[in-house]
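Hi U.,

Before I forget, here's the chain from the pilot set. I'm dumping it here mostly so it's searchable later in email.
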Amino acid sequence: MEHTTSTERLQGVRNAVARACREAGRKAEDVTLVAVSKTFPAEEMTPVLEAGQRVFGENRVQEAQAKWPALKAQWPDVELHLIGPLQSNKAREAVELFDVIHTVDRPKIAAALAVEMARQGRHPKLFVQVNTGVEPQKAGILPQDADAFIAECRERHGLTIAGLMCIPPVEAVPDPHFALLEKIAARNGLHELSMGMSADFPAAIRQGATLVRVGSAIFGHR
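Structure:
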């Protein structure tokens, strides 16, 4: 791992995504690779951008604000995803900066995003985060509350929800969590699933992931 470059690792991940898609009987272009660039400085993005990667995930609004405007000026077709928890007081900045927000998980956030999207005329794609493991320390709507919350986002706040996102518990076998997310999505007419990270994205692809969020397998560990 130490002797490989981020571009070599990126190619390895792309190959692994394509292989997982083949094994699942899916097309490789149906799965978007989100390169999770959180905690890595702007200069470490350059080789990966030069290798053609255009979809990136950040955990924190402030970090993304410091890093991405200059990079986006250089690579205007970059698509930026917020994959970390969103505070309602950061809704304005999130709507300004991000193209996709994966972590809509409570009524206060839904309301704040609706206000900002109307005000700015920008409409990032929205995903509802589901806490499939019902972990008290983790963000996300509980599985049993997901249907009602999706309906509230749509009907009360006028939001278009594109899909669902989850982060399975670290020690758990991820497949049942991915299957649960797919089931909730299907019954709510949602077609996009943000699930799977460096350690488990092949399993997520088997269960229907349309976006996989891969950081350490591309950028290494900090």
